[in-house]
């Protein structure tokens, strides 16, 4: 008869073999059921599940995770994750093409951001982008009977909103701004407030964690923040190229049988 401690060692060995086999089987099944799974994803999921203040608790949207718009476009530039390092120019009171006082060149500098405003995406990309009201989506004519939808990049709208805020600060330099303000100040402030909140939501969503450090400066008693930080910036070239290749220059006419929303979303 084997001594008790011998049986215990053998049992531990069997348990170890079973554990290793289970881990291997689980790994194989994970790759079959979720080909994109990796250690970092599993680690991140574990952290989020164990975190009492998980991101899901801060958001009232429970749909599937969204992916980058460029990842949805079948003829788009890869996965949309091409970046470059760039140092911000945050020095106070310097001159740039985007600052006032306003000139024709100032407006031209801003307007380059929306040289392409709208474009067409296929049905697959449209639905994967999780539109709020897909039943009322605007369809555009495409060759070969394919169904395509009108769209724009969120960054285009966000930059246009920032331009609106710039114009609001120089209202006396833009006749149309002054005229609209005098005609209906409530509507004018409504548009400006809309842009403020769009940019607020974007900044809150991204929560840039780039470190802003401080310097000692002559004739300044307190530490001075240095906003000339190095950032990881998305490359615009591919996005602009894709938009230009699929641009929709003329807005489509509304069909008589179009599904319509009761109010502006």
UniProtKB/TrEMBL annotation:
Subcellular localization: Membrane
Membrane disposition: Single-pass membrane protein
A cellular component term, taken from the record's GO annotations: membrane
Family: Belongs to the ustYa family.
Record flagged with keyword Amino-acid biosynthesis: no
InterPro entries: UstYa-like
Source organism (scientific name): Podospora aff. communis PSN243
Main location as per UniProt: membrane
Transmembrane segment boundaries: 12-33
GO biological process: mycotoxin biosynthetic process
Organism domain of life: Eukaryota
Keywords assigned by UniProt, alphabetized: Glycoprotein, Membrane, Transmembrane, Transmembrane helix, Virulence
Annotated protein name in UniProt: Uncharacterized protein
